[in-house]
Amino acid sequence: MRVLVALGGNAMTSPDGTAHPADQVRAISEAMEHVAELVSAGHDVVLTHGNGPQVGNLLVKNEVAAHVVPPVPLDWCGAQTQGTIGFTILDALEPALARRGVARPVAALVTRTLVDAQDPHFQSPTKPVGRYLPADQAQQMIDHGQQWEDRGDKGWRRVVASPEPQEILDLGAIRALVETGHVVVAAGGGGIPVVREEDGTLRGVEAVIDKDLTAALLARALGCDILIIATDVDHAMVDYGTPDERPLGVTSLAQMQSYAADGQFASGSMGPKVDAALRFAESGGRSIITSLEHITDAVESEFGTVIDASPED
Ligand SMILES: Nc1ncnc2c1ncn2[C@@H]1O[C@H](COP(=O)(O)OP(=O)(O)O)[C@@H](O)[C@H]1O
Ligand SMILES: NC(=O)OP(=O)(O)O
């Protein structure tokens, strides 16, 4: 099977969102054991990953050091996270594969994703990035012109523009690497957002694309059989957070569309994952939302929330 695994922030850093380098290396090393297990079970694996905590931290460095070195735009910050997370994944994945006797080359690709300059999401930021702050400290940032949002128990988080991914511009290179047997890391952080100018040239724009939405696009473009959205819960749930909450196993596309329309999945967490899973399933693929620990079970024995376009859909 050709499988695209989208690694959530929870798979790559500590849950408090501080993204300490040692925590990231530790979390990525653990994540790559699960990825290597999937590869060693005989599947062709393409990886993508989030970058919310990391890109938010780079923005803070920009602000703090602005009087010493010139700040760089958000698309540059996104590109930097692809490099840093990409090489850290490779450093962990190579030995994890070698320990299992799997001889597969690995590669991480700087990847650009085309967005529309007129996308209305540029006007209303929705993508949470960086650390959590208490309300009073967030208010200080808001007073300086930033947009922050109450994210519940953990506190407030900065939000930035998150346009729809339209096209993965480096798809040809990703495909060439996949077809020569590489385990490829691509479109990290949803891809570096770029727009096409009237003269055909490309220009980076200040935004962070949702990595799950780009993952659905990439999985479709690569002809993947399965899209796995790997996070920190085994299943998406309905009536989440209530005494009636229950996990969803194998679920028809129509049923999942109906749950989503009923507002069962929170925006900013499970909502975009279900949206991405639905998009890939609507295009004829199988989408699975599950925990990182269970990605091989997901592919081999339908563990997790499995969304299939069954014939009656
Ligand atoms: N309906 C739901 N079912 C399961 N988890 C949910 C639901 N709604 C919100 N969540 C929360 O979504 C979280 C996963 O989303 P998120 O933290 O954004 O993941 P990641 O960082 O791995 O991409 C879970 O830890 C859970 O707390
Ligand atoms: N770019 C992105 O979706 O990052 P997170 O998954 O870390 O939020």
From TrEMBL:
Reactions catalysed according to its record: hydrogencarbonate + NH4(+) + ATP = carbamoyl phosphate + ADP + H2O + H(+)
User: GO CC annotations?
Assistant: cytosol
Is Transferase there in the keyword field? yes
**Keyword field contains Transferase:** yes
Q: Which UniProt keywords apply?
A: Kinase, Transferase
Q: Name one GO biological process term.
A: L-arginine deiminase pathway
Instruction: List the InterPro entries.
Output: AceGlu_kinase-like_sf (IPR036393), Asp/Glu/Uridylate_kinase (IPR001048), Carb_kinase (IPR003964)
Q: Which PANTHER family match?
A: CARBAMATE KINASE, CARBAMATE KINASE-RELATED
Which family does this protein fall into? Belongs to the carbamate kinase family.
State the name under which the record lists this protein: Carbamate kinase
What organism is the protein native to?
Knoellia locipacati
